[in-house]
Amino acid sequence: MRTRQDIIAELTAPGAALEVVREQVRGIPMPVYAGGPSSLRAVFESTRQFDDRDFLVYGDERWTYGHHYRLVCGLAHHFQQSFGLRKGDRVAIGMRNYPEWVMTFWACQVLGAIAVPLNAWWTGSELAYAVRDSAATLLVLDDERLERIAGELAGLPSVEHTVSVRTAAAYDGVHRWEDVLASLDRQAELPTVDIAPDDDATILYTSGTTGAPKGAVGSHRNHCTNLMNTMLLGAVAVERAADSGVTLPETPPQPCALQTFPFFHIGGLSGLYVSTAFGSRLVTQYKWDTAEAIDIIEREGVTSMSLVPTLLRRFLEFPGLSERDLSTLTAVASGGAAVPPDLITRIESDFAQRVSPANGYGLTETTSAVVMNSADQYFDHPDSIGRPVPVCELRIVEPGGGDLPTGQIGELLVRGPNVVRGYWNNPVATEAAFTDGWFHSGDLGRVDEDGLVYVLDRLKDVVIRGGENIYCAEVEAVLFEHPAVYDVALIGVPDVAMGEQPLAIVQVRPGTTVTEDELRAFVGQRIARFKVPEHVVFRDDALPRTATGKLLKRQLRDELLASSAPA
């Protein structure tokens, strides 16, 4: 039977459906897909083939692809003619995962405008920072975001128009979405705009856990490459199924994705345009609710979903899950934060390998995953994130920048057509993070002799205990195996003798008890003694995380050092 790598080599060979060639991108030679869409506008135009299919589902509301196409055409004309929006102008989108988010995004892409997704968790001043930094001329906000930023609007000189979505209150000078829709020309065709692959498409702000957020500038090529990577992964799955003797239907049913990542996150944005390109039905929620999500899976026949690890854990541990009809679910992916291996084991045991799991590695700056795992290697190597996609070049380097031999740990550098060109309006940060197209990830990793990639920790988040490096993700993964541990974070705290000591902050699973000594002994039986937490601090409330599940370790450390906890 062909290996996964054999199939990829065939699919990307000269003349093949997903042929990879070498081209100059922004003056740098790199591997790219020879075919595929040249822009997100081209992706949108291709949806005419799905006119009668359901596209967006939100509660009791539904839109077909055809209805969505007509709305986006009308919106694009309205934005252009009534609001004066032109190619290259920035449009800030701040709302929950409402259908209006999707429509606004696609209206931007067909116009060549640059979408600026705003983190829905931000305060008014944080929202205003991104609007001011990007010099957005149009704001499209739901009631919560508009209420937060209302007091800041007068101090945002670039903003010429604001549209409110699903708002009960009226705001002076703010256009209501309902009024905009009522004025649309439903017979309008797409405005004529030339969009090149390397034109800017999005500005996605990083989470800003260590300072002011930076706007990563994504191009149409970046996003279309990410789409092609996803298409390749699907083609590999089909080929492996054929090799295993599985007969696939000639006309497969419409895919259905439950969107859990927020659209402002690169994972959520990827899910949006990948679902659109594949003609999938895309279902969203007001906010994550496990019981409601299970009902949606049964009702809509959801075939795939992607969850941050904390939500995936809630889903897998929901009471009575095994009694529900989840037979349509064939793919579960996780990302946004490190995926503990115990979750992978749970997927294997709970779904008896009927569900194809996937994880990967990517950042906002790499336009989602550049390293991908799939079922054929996922269960065998749960601590690996897989192999690089064919158009990704990857290096492991020492602090001085020199390449390290196979198996050694260093910083992970990435280059390829889905790596962004830099940070908006921030040349200093761009110069620090990008060298000759190589993006310095800030993550520590290694590559084994089989080409599998392992990400161990953030470069600046390693605990150095008496000269020995302790990778937090490794210790956290071990602690997650203990039945009493619901959530955990390992941080380094100052120590006079050792420089730093590892300290575990543990949220205990309801209805269980465990002591500090028991947890330390549990870890010591599984990994080297020097990695065992010197102290364990228990807490009842949830550990602070970003909207995408990343632990806010700096906040935890500051809280801990300000308290009387051992340090």
Write structural notes for this entry.
With 567 residues, the protein is of the alpha/beta class. Among the domains are: 65-218, Rossmann fold (3-Layer(aba) Sandwich); 462-562, GMP Synthetase, Chain A, domain 3, CATH 3.30.300.30. 31% of the residues lie in helices and 25% in strands. Helix 1 crosses helix 8, helix 8 (220-243) packs across helix 9 (266-278) and helix 11 (309-316) packs parallel to helix 12 (341-350). The chain is globular and about 70 Å long. The N and C termini lie far apart (55 Å).
List the helices and strands and how they pair.
Blueprint: H1 4-11, E1 20-25, E2 28-33, H2 40-45, E3 54-58, E4 61-64, H3 65-81, E5 90-94, H4 99-111, E6 114-117, H5 124-134, E7 138-142, H6 143-149, E8 161-165, E9 175-176, H7 177-182, E10 200-205, E11 215-219, H8 220-243, E12 256-259, H9 266-278, E13 281-284, H10 290-300, E14 304-307, H11 309-316, E15 331-334, H12 341-350, E16 356-358, E17 360-363, E18 368-372, H13 375-378, E19 387-388, E20 393-397, E21 410-415, H14 427-433, E22 434-435, E23 438-447, E24 453-458, E25 463-465, E26 468-470, H15 472-480, E27 485-495, E28 499-508, H16 516-524, E29 535-539, H17 553-562
Parallel strand pairs: 3-13, 5-6, 5-7, 7-8, 8-9, 12-13, 12-14, 14-15, 15-16, 28-29
Antiparallel strand pairs: 1-2, 3-4, 10-11, 17-18, 18-19, 20-21, 21-23, 22-23, 23-24, 25-26, 27-28
